[in-house]
Design brief:
The protein is mostly helical. It contains 3 helices and no strands.
């Protein structure tokens, strides 16, 4: 299977940069919620706690995706990119186009 490794690498790095930037921009939303009843009402505090929980979950998903991208970059460096980590068969170009960090073919996924 022939791939333009420079294009794949730049696409993976761009995705990683985008995820890290999103994580940085949402940093304030993940800060602990202060429990000062004088400045914030009970419902506002509950809403803040819910927003914090959602932002933390979104950040966990972004972190997991960054790890997948790092693994794909390692596979690219090792010459294993584009091959299924489970069965060893080639991953279809359409699947890699849709998810450039995909470690498995459609059959094994």
């Amino acid at each position: 299977m022939t791939l333009d490794t420079d294009t794949v690498r730049s696409r993976l790095l761009a995705l990683k940069s985008e995820l890290i930037a999103l994580s940085e921009s949402a940093r304030d939303d993940r800060k602990p919620v202060e429990l000062d009843q004088q400045s914030v009402g009970r419902l506002s505090r509950q809403d803040s706690l819910q927003v914090q929980a959602m932002m933390m979950a979104a950040d966990a998903r972004r972190t997991k995706e960054v790890r997948r991208i790092d693994a794909a970059l390692r596979r690219l460096d090792e010459g294993e990119y584009g091959w299924c980590a489970e069965c060893g068969e080639a991953i279809t170009p359409a699947r890699l186009e849709a998810d450039p960090a995909a470690p498995r073919c459609a059959g094994c996924a």
